[in-house]
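Example record for the data management plan.
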Amino acid sequence: MPRKGITGHDEWVVTEALATALVALEQLPSKHQPRAHMEDVRKILTARCEAGAVTLHLAQAKCRLFPDTNPLTIYEEYGLKDGLG
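Corresponding structural encoding:
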């Protein structure tokens, strides 16, 4: 059976990359944040996700970028409890 896309899970990889990029850009000082591009990234991410899943992807990305931070703290920051929307 042929793989879908290049890796077989291209959609997942791109979704995770978008979420991670957005969280990383949010960490820049405000004057260095490319706001217009960040909004475009958020729009693309939102279009790729099921309703309500954007915040979960963003929380997971922040957990990856900040592994020393308590994940429950991050989930609560995004309005999620116990990692669920």
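Summary line stored alongside the record: The chain has a mean pLDDT of 92.
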